[in-house]
Specification:
Layout lengths: L7 H15 L4 H12 L9 H14 L3 E5 L5 H7 L7 E6 L2 H13 L6 E5 L2 H10 L7 E4 L6 H10 L6 E5 L15 H14 L4 E10 L2 E10 L1
Parallel strand pairs: 1-2, 1-4, 2-3, 4-5
Antiparallel strand pairs: 5-7, 6-7
Helix pairs in contact: 2-5, 3-4, 7-8
Amino acid sequence: MKMITNDVTTWGKVDDYVTERLIPYDEVLEQVLLANQEAGLPEIDVSPAQGKLLNVIARIKGAKRILEIGTLGGYSTIWMARAIGPEGKLISLELDPFHAQVAKSNVALAGLEDRVEIRVGDALVQLEQLAKEKAEPFDLVFIDADKPSNPNYMKWALQFSRPGTVVISDNVIRDGEVIDHHSTDPRVQGIRKFMDMLSGEPAISGTAIQTVGSKGYDGFYIGIVQ
């Protein structure tokens, strides 16, 4: 049987298949997604397969301290917080107060409020505040916020890292538009500047992985601090 490899419907069906086989049903996570939907949040959470990937990477790393830039409703937050154990700490930064309120409720539903701190406000301002507080280095940094600021987020990620820290950034392929140097989309321009920055940055070594699925065609950057 010939498979259609560039069909969005097929990608979604494959995502469903992977989820059914490899990701056990989780009532809490389903309730979180429902709460986000009922609150009217944008449906831009990571997929279950992507959330599981973040969880697995955090566990492989043995992460105890995670920085998340961009909380939304806390779905990815919960996936990662579950990986760090009761002694771990995850700090998540969210611009929108309402999104943060929904996320805090979801984190409490998951029973993880003891290890998750959600800070509200402009991420760049919050990152400066963390620097003033002399925050300890993080084991994993997940960037999933406004794309025009990605280069600045990466600079801060490196500042809050140590050798071996894993840095992940979502939405770096953008339906393939990342290769369009004529694009006027500020999100694409932000990702291109992000990639240009990384191409000459000796402090981190990584790659970009293209992804397809229920969230369409996009990708992750995954790197390790040298």
